[in-house]
Design a protein that fits this description.
- The complex is a heterodimer of chains A (324) and B (295).
- Chain A has 324 residues and is an all-alpha fold.
- Chain A contains 16 helices and 2 strands.
- A two-stranded antiparallel sheet of chain A has the order 1-2.
- The longest helix of chain A is centred in the C-terminal third of the chain and has 29 residues.
- The N terminus of chain A is likely disordered.
- With 295 residues, chain B is mostly helical.
- The chains are: A mainly alpha (324), B mainly alpha (295).
- The interface between A and B is large, with 124 and 122 residues.
Chain lengths: 324, 295
Amino acid sequence: MTSVDRSPRPGVVAPARGSAPRAAAGGATPRGSRRGYDGWWPVLFVLPTMFGVVLFYLWPIVQTGWFSLTEWGAFGGQTWVGLENYQRLARDPDLGTAVVNTLVYTAIVLLGIPIAMFVASLLHRPGMRFTAFYRVLYFMPYVAMPTAVAMVWRLIFNGDFGILNQALAVVGIDGPSWTSTPGFALVAVSVVGLWTSLGFAIIILSAGLRTIPPELYEAASLDGASAWRQFRSVTVPLLTPSVFFVTVITVINGFQLFDLLYALMGQANPAMQKTQSLVYLFYNEAFLRNDKGFAAAIAMVILLIVGAVTLLQFRMQRRWVTYA
Amino acid sequence: MPDATLTTTAPVVAGRPAAPRRRTSRHGSNAWAHVLLAVGGVVMVFPFVWQLLTSLSTNAQVMSVPPVFWPGELQWGNYAEVFSKLPFLQEFWVSVSITVARTVGQLVLCSMAGYAFARMRFPLRGVLLALVLSILMVPSQVYLIPQYQIINGLGWLNTVAGIAAPGIFSAFGTFLMMQFFKGAPDSLEEAARLDGANPFQVFWRVMLPLAGPSLGALTIITVLWSWNDLLWPLVVSTRAESMPLAAGIATFAGRTTTDYTVMMAASALAMAPILLLFVVMQRRVIDGLAHSGLK
């Protein structure tokens, strides 16, 4: 931060001034020489953002790292405890539960990608009409407020009078009380998660489909390839970059599961402990149980897991993503 | 696989005349695609319809077995009750305020910083940019506790300023705008510079007007996120009347578990502004989100 204030020293301002006429004369390099700086102006442009980024993001990351090695007293003040929070976390069965729940949720939401691929290819059919209308229908859950849509899903999933169980009763299935039974609650949250994120996947995959040259299909059909064969040999490989992108985003969002879980189940739900996600575990420790040192350790673990999973995905993309 | 596609591209030109015939033959078979899409569409929209229907029903109808699909006499009174049972207007105002503050803040700050990173030269540019971009990889939980401490220390808990403040700055927005300015043409900028415009005038009068689509995408993302965000407002606001709607609805649901119809009416009202905006500007919203790839 402070380095930004001092950066344009008089010595380096001079060549910047000189650069303008040179650029005018040369024409090709508007920015002048490699070492030419733009004087004090960049400070004006960058300083507000750097201020906010350092104050609200960068320094807090360092602080959380430090907090994770401390214990917080009831009236403030932290004492150094070394790795104790991490050791406690390793022994805590809730961490394992939260990791598994988060992974299960993410896996179920990922099932939306094949569905989205199917819907996108239907929308992409030649001569298809009303596509804008369908896109609005499928995209609506993505823009709707998660807390607000969770309220109606609560009703739908209600064990006694929910429309889902009443429909299941017609075919002779006695549905559970979805949002308050461990296991079923996670499935319910995941289904809503899939429903909200499907539209996003459809849009990205549709954009991907539009980049595939139609000539490839024409050539393939001239070679006698069936519609299924065309889908498998042309659409799928050329769509893999879009699929990869959607997968990365879906996994990152999946690990952030909080809003839907919180709103669909409610804080006081007895099944919450068995259904909680990593972010809920963090929220609960940091702001409900006020154990901020321990919560900071959870945050660092989330950072580690998300980082490792994202890295792994980029490592594995070579195996299945085709860049044409 | 790539080899196969490459070899099949060769006869493409020769195959062109055959294309129209194939297209018309496909054209006729779109009926079943419409059926599938419509069935899926009904599933996607059903919760919204169900929400509207239950918000106009009585509690007895909501809880009845077998279900009542059409409430008969529409209970508009449920919507009136929203305003007496929860501080809806205050919460609505908080939502609007934080959304406007964050959006305006991000549009100004991110476009300025993005412009500087893309087109200006200054010492430590690479380092500063790397620092800003590094937060893109970090989940929000990692900075939540210190952010809370800052807001608490400023005495900004339960205020619009406290909820809005961290979100006025955005690494993602800076990145998005930087990407745009990197690809913008040099010629206009150069001409303005020769006319004696200072860098701020160049940015404000020449470059920013070109950035319409990117600014639009950033607006859409920020508005959506500000309106719908739950975790941070929940952390920094404890009183119902100083929460935005997302947190207010969740808290109301936590207090009352049986007042279903009012809950449905409140949540329908809470998401209505964004859904209406989306339906009106659907093309721009969808393209904007696809273009930037993130919420």
